[in-house]
Amino acid sequence: MAKLTYLTSNKHKMEEANRHFVRKYGFKIDIKKPNFEIIEIQAQSSIEVVKFSVEYAAKKLKKPVLKSDTALYIDYLGGLTRPI
Q1: Cα separations in angstroms, 49 against 1, 9, 28, 39
Q2: CA within 20 to 30 Å of 22's CA: 6, 11, 47, 65, which one?
Q3: What is the pTM of this model?
Q4: Are the CB atoms for 58 and 64 separated by under 8 Å?
């Protein structure tokens, strides 16, 4: 299995990824702040946003990457979705 690179500039996400992926599950993963800006598009779903971002970063780094994203979905308002 290829070693993944988890990209984030959020210190808390770095700590959480290290705690879960590395210590708890023993995955071989590099957790680092990218030295370039990861482009985040505007889209209807967080899946589209993350897909674009990881493809962009993977091409730039020439290796597999992992990235997380958060979205707010409000079913009460007719399924309103909005990546945040």
Answers
A1: 25, 17, 25, 9
A2: 47
A3: 0.71
A4: yes
